């Protein structure tokens, strides 16, 4: 027994690591983990035989984007290159695990640990790896359904892919940050970008704040003890939420029509006023903000109504004893409780409206047109991206703007969530 332990102390983890680096599985064979070593050997051999040509062409393609027009398709090469990078990342992770596993087993053997039998090794691997086995299919789908399209979009932002330079007739080229520079330097892109970006900010802040304020105001009114028929009123106020949004938007688009819409023809005409809701950018923006306030307040109203009913009346009674006014009770009791409970959802309202494509597209398709710009007067960033992609085929600029949108929304949401309790660990609240 002592000789066996001496031999194991002479077992060198560095040798196991070097062998695993040379070829996956050799370190496991050195550790006398025969089955595990054979599995790693088969996996690496199968990987090299199956994917060598695919990865070789993919990595060449993503670097060059092709060399012969009409034969090399830059888009296909780009996608193949991205898939190759993902496959290589998986392979490197498994390769690294193979090295770490060989070193860990070698250290255990050096310390005199018993070599497990095949049955014991399989049972241990199943116990440890069971959660990963369940997670892996979803992870793979997530990578190829979500991550791959995102990587493709990000890649297009650094190419010259547009209507006049599209494969297979032409080859794409990597242009670095030229598309981002053009957004803020070339006249038509600069004026359009800053105009659309400023309106997107105004739209997000005003429309979302409007629906939150209206929802809070109505929730406070309905929650008042003097109000009767509360159930009926709450049901009535939530009805706009029950109607599909696209139906409501199309109805409002007809109502705001300059010529035959009910708002101009039946209401404003009574006082001799006709407002160009669809042809003037300013009035179109007013209409859009009004519609979004109508669409968004029922959700906020329902949210605030539930929170208001959970606030203890003892707080208000104590405030009455101290001589607190209605405004003071609202400021120091109601509002903090409401915001405390709903802050993450309210943040998501702002983030959602920042990318609220439906209302802009369905109401007037981002119109009316504005001279000197390649976006409509009410286009926000996301609807502008849609037009650049499907109307003018400026894929590179659309991808660049999409990256900016993603960074803005994710940065704002992450910063605000960090300031609320939603991201704090239990016990540190």
From TrEMBL:
The species is Litchfieldia luteola
The record gives the membrane topology as: Multi-pass membrane protein
Q: Where in the cell is it found?
A: Cell membrane
The record's InterPro entries line, in alphabetical order, gives: MetI-like, MetI-like_sf
- Membrane-crossing residues? 37-63, 75-97, 132-159, 201-223, 235-256, 282-304, 333-352, 395-415
**Pfam families reported in the protein's UniProt record:** BPD_transp_1
According to its UniProt entry, the function of this protein is described as: Part of the ABC transporter complex MalEFGK involved in maltose/maltodextrin import. Probably responsible for the translocation of the substrate across the membrane.
Give the matching Gene3D superfamilies. Answer: MetI-like (1.10.3720.10)
The entry's family comment says: Belongs to the binding-protein-dependent transport system permease family. MalFG subfamily.
Q: What domain of life does the native source organism fall in?
A: Bacteria
Q: Please state what the protein is called.
A: Maltose/maltodextrin transport system permease protein
Q: Fetch the SUPFAM superfamilies from UniProt.
A: MalF N-terminal region-like, MetI-like
């Amino acid at each position: 027994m002592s000789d066996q332990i001496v031999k194991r102390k002479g077992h060198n983890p560095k040798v196991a690591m070097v062998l695993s680096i040379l070829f996956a599985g050799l370190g496991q064979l050195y550790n006398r983990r025969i089955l595990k070593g054979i599995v790693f050997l088969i996996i690496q051999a199968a990987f090299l035989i199956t994917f060598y040509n695919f990865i070789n062409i993919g990595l060449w393609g993503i670097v060059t984007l092709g060399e012969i027009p009409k034969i090399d398709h830059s888009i296909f090469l780009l996608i193949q290159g991205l898939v190759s990078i993902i496959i290589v990342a998986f392979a490197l992770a498994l390769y690294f695990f193979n090295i770490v596993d060989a070193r860990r087993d070698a250290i255990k053997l050096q310390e005199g640990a018993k070599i497990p039998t095949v049955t014991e090794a399989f049972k241990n691997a199943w116990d440890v790896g069971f959660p990963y086995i369940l997670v892996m299919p979803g992870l793979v789908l997530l990578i190829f359904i979500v991550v791959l399209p995102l990587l493709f979009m990000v890649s297009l932002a650094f190419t010259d892919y547009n209507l006049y330079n599209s494969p297979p007739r032409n080859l794409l080229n990597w242009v670095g940050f030229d598309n981002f520079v053009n957004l803020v330097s070339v006249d038509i892109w600069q004026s359009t970008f800053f105009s659309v970006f400023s309106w997107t900010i105004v739209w997000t802040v005003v429309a979302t704040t409007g629906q939150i304020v209206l929802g809070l105001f109505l929730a406070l009114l309905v929650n008042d003890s003097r109000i009767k028929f509360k159930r009926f009123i709450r049901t009535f106020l939530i009805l706009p939420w029950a109607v599909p949004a696209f139906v409501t938007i199309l109805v409002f688009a007809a109502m705001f029509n300059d010529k035959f819409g009910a708002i101009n023809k039946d209401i404003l005409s009574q006082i001799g006023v006709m407002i160009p809701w669809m042809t003037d950018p300013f009035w179109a923006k007013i209409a859009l903000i009004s519609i979004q306030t109508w669409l968004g307040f029922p959700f906020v109203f329902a949210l605030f109504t539930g929170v208001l009913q959970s606030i203890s009346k003892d707080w208000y009674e104590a405030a009455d004893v101290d001589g607190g006014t209605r405004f003071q009770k609202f400021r120091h009791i109601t509002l903090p409780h409401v915001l405390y409970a709903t802050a993450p959802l309210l943040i998501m309202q702002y983030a959602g409206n920042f990318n609220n494509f439906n209302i802009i597209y369905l109401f007037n398709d981002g119109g009316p047109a504005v001279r000197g710009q390649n976006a409509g007067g009410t286009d926000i960033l996301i609807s502008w991206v849609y037009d650049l992609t499907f109307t003018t085929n400026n894929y590179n600029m659309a991808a660049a703007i999409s990256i900016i949108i993603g960074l803005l929304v994710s940065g704002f949401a992450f910063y605000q969530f960090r300031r609320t309790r939603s991201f704090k660990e239990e016990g540190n609240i």
